[in-house]
Write a structure and sequence with these properties.
The chain is about 45% helix and about 20% strand. By secondary structure, it is an alpha/beta fold. The protein folds into three domains: about 90 residues, OB fold (Dihydrolipoamide Acetyltransferase, E2P); about 150 residues, Rossmann fold, CATH 3.40.50.261; about 40 residues, no CATH class. Strands 1-2-3-5-4 form a five-stranded mixed β-barrel. Helix 4 packs parallel to helix 8 and helix 5 packs parallel to helix 6. It is elongated, with a radius of gyration of 54 Å.
């Protein structure tokens, strides 16, 4: 064999280059199978049809953009690129976008309608009303033969047997459903027949739920003076009336639970509160009784003394300490004054003169400190401690 050979890696790289270059952007439709979310958050699955199957992956950061949960058996349309995984020699689709096949156009229509109604302010939180805590009458806009209505009636009968329910029958799917649903909501407001309205149905496909995203239904819900609870489909389903309603319930059953209060629960709450209140009052009274018990007439004087005596002793001790401190301070100052007086007295000229010394000055009053400054015949003045003496120098000795 003289032909140049390739390593497996080199061959795989050439295949990768060809496939990834030729299929950089692809859109594939098929049924999802082997759907297996990984612990890393990525989703691995396969797309198949009657004749073939291909592996696919959607990474965690792109999964966050989905509005539904992919499950086996769904018919999906994905957009992405073809990628070759060299260690296994396999290829797969790396999905960037995913939608339910056939639902793309509907979702685009709903998104456009949603933005339009949002700009009109129909979804503003300030428009939403608070639901009454204990409504007397509940109106239900739904199919009279649907399972959703049965669930609502069963829950309300069990949780609030005295709550009155008025059924406003309407189809919940089909072309005429949207107009009838909106008309029922407006009729309920016109005649003020309920304290709160439940508008909804059970689960279904995106097409089945379309009537609850109709403009007339959304406007009727937003304009309703009666608080509206939207309960369309299952928890993962949604409709535009959810955004305009005063409250969205994940299911019709949940809507019935949210607006109902049973007399048993209210009675139980009151009984529990009364029980807790009695216990608190009983505990406080017992505590007050224990605190007051020692303070009888005979023991009162003793207890007052026991409180005051330590404080009086502390006051006497503080007074004695203050007096002693002042005495010590005065004695110290007295000693300093006497010492200063002795130093000043010793430095005074009078102290030397008392020992017999005199001060000799010339006629100009200058003190004579040196005999050389005096000439024979100069007049001098001698000042002993007492009096003064005038003298004439007869002789000087140096």
């Amino acid at each position: 064999m003289t032909q140049k050979h390739l390593t497996v890696t080199e061959l795989t790289e050439q295949i990768r280059s060809c496939l990834e270059g030729a299929f950089s952007v692809i859109c594939v439709e098929g049924e999802i199978s082997n759907c297996r979310p990984a612990s890393s958050g990525h989703l691995y699955f396969s797309l198949k049809d009657a004749g073939a199957k291909i592996d696919a992956v959607m990474f965690k950061n792109r999964l966050k953009t989905l509005t539904f949960e992919p499950k086996d058996g769904m018919l999906l349309r994905v957009r992405g690129s073809l990628s070759v995984y060299a260690p296994r020699g396999t290829y797969s689709i790396v999905c960037e976008e995913m939608e339910i096949a056939g639902a793309g156009e509907i979702l685009a229509l709903l998104e456009k309608r949603k933005q339009k109604l949002k700009q009109e302010g129909l979804f503003d939180p300030d428009r939403k009303k608070t639901l009454p805590r204990f409504p007397s009458v509940v109106g239900v806009v739904s199919s009279p033969t649907g399972a959703a209505l049965r669930d609502i009636l069963n829950i309300l009968a069990r949780r609030a047997p005295n709550l009155k329910v008025i059924i406003l029958p309407s189809p919940v799917q089909g072309e005429e459903a949207s107009a009838i649903i909106a008309a029922r909501i407006r009729q309920a407001n016109q005649w003020k027949i309920a304290d709160v309205l439940i508008v909804g149905r059970g689960g279904g496909s995106l097409e089945d739920l379309l009537p609850f995203s109709g403009e007339d239904v959304v406007r009727a819900v937003a304009e309703s003076d009666i608080p509206v609870v939207s309960a369309v489909g299952h928890e993962i389903d949604w409709a535009l009336c959810d955004f305009a309603a005063d409250l969205r319930a994940p299911t019709p059953s949940a809507a019935a639970e949210l607006i109902s209060e049973t007399y048993l629960s209210v009675s139980g709450t009151i009984k529990n509160a009364a029980f807790d209140l009695k216990n608190v009052m009983r505990a406080r009274i017992e505590k007050a009784r224990l605190l007051l018990k020692p303070f009888d007439v005979k023991d009162l004087e003793y207890r007052i003394r026991s409180i005051l005596q330590p404080r009086l002793i502390r006051l006497d001790d503080a007074k004695e300490e203050l007096i002693n401190t002042m005495k010590d301070k005065c004695s110290s100052l007295r000693n300093r004054i006497e010492l200063t007086e002795a130093v000043l007295t010793a430095a005074s000229p009078l102290s030397a003169m008392e020992k017999g010394f005199s001060i000799v000055t010339d006629v100009k009053g200058r003190v004579v400190k040196n005999a050389a400054a005096v000439k024979t015949g100069d007049k001098l003045n001698i000042r002993p401690l007492k009096g003064s003496i005038d003298a004439i120098a007869e002789k000087t000795m140096i």
